[in-house]
Amino acid sequence: MGRIITIVSGKGGVGKTSLTANLGVALSQAGLKVLLVDADVAMANLSLILGMQSSPITLHDVLLGESTINDAVYDGPGGVFFVPSGLSLEAYRRVDSERLESVIKGIQENYDFILIDAPAGIEKNVMAAIAAGDETIIVTTPDSPSVADAIKIKLVAQRLGVNPIGLIINFARNEKGEIKAQDITRLLELPVMGIVPEDPEIRRSFMQENALPVILRKPNCPSSNSIRKIAEKLAGKNIEASAEEKKPGFFSRLFGNFGKKKQTEQIKKTTQE
Ligand SMILES: Nc1ncnc2c1ncn2[C@@H]1O[C@H](COP(=O)(O)OP(=O)(O)OP(=O)(O)O)[C@@H](O)[C@H]1O
Ligand SMILES: [Mg+2]
Q: Which residues neighbour ligand 2 (ion) by CB within 5 Å?
């Protein structure tokens, strides 16, 4: 039986999706079979960070009972498997996120790790993402609003009977005024699994025409090194840093920015449905 871990935060924008993608790739580099699930059913963007273009069948279709989960699993970069969320607002309004738990538990034995990228906050889709996991990792930045929200999400997870196993402190700058790791541990009564520095390479990696998780594009940059160490703790073994170059597709090589434009149009079209 694989481990199902939901990556959560109280506050938005703290790096859950970036960490999910990169931790997943690192675990896969450790030789483990990893599935990433974009459970941010309203604001899907794990696929953008993974550099995946539109996918015909998504978690929306699965939660609507129109497809099976296995039909929504795609090959991602670095050997990960990936279930994207849909972009259609209309489908989002109809999805039943409570089905997520049974859907994910139904494929638990097929993977070593299933990492679920949760939305921020404590609304119903967040609770569904937490309930679908057996464990949670809480992401926070080293400042008081984020830590205060992390405390709330920890309580929510505990009420749902899901064990928070630790914290990741992201966007660390080592600046005066930041809350220290030992103070965050004390406040949340949870171990710090890793501290990931603020690193422009993370943003750069998905802003490329051919987006790729930073751990594959720049395997030795500061954020990649920190994320790999967290993955090593989860995997219980060392992971070699290795790069993967994503070659531009045939069309983008021929027409330059054409591929990106096509992607933008696709997002516009599906969100207007
Ligand atoms: N350590 C970091 N250093 C610099 N930029 C980062 C870091 N981690 C994440 N980012 C950037 O911060 C932004 C938000 O990250 P991300 O989307 O992963 O957060 P999130 O918690 O999933 O957000 P949301 O709550 O909206 O789902 C992205 O532009 C990402 O590239
Ligand atoms: Mg996110």
A: 16-17
Residue-wise pLDDT tens digits, 178-202: 999 999 999 999 999 999 999 999 9
What whole-number distance in Å separates Cα of residue 115 and Cα of residue 143? 25
Say what the pLDDT of residue 259 is.
47
188: left (phi over 0), alpha (psi -120 to 50) or beta: alpha
Domains defined for the chain, CATH in brackets:
3-247 (3.40.50.300)
- Substitution site in 203, 212, 225 for ligand 1 pocket (most atoms within 8 Å of beta carbon): 203
Ligand 1 atom 2, closest CA: 198
Give yes or no for residue 254 having a pLDDT over 70.
no
Ligand 1 atom nearest residue 206's Cα: 31
Q: From the alpha carbon of 12, which atom of ligand 1 is closest?
A: 25
pTM score above 0.85: yes
Q: Which two tokens stand for residue 196?
A: 């990931």
Q: If you average pLDDT over residues 223-240, what whole number do you get?
A: 97
Could you tell me the CA-to-CA distances from 3 to 75, 105, 158, 235 in Å, in that order?
19, 10, 18, 11
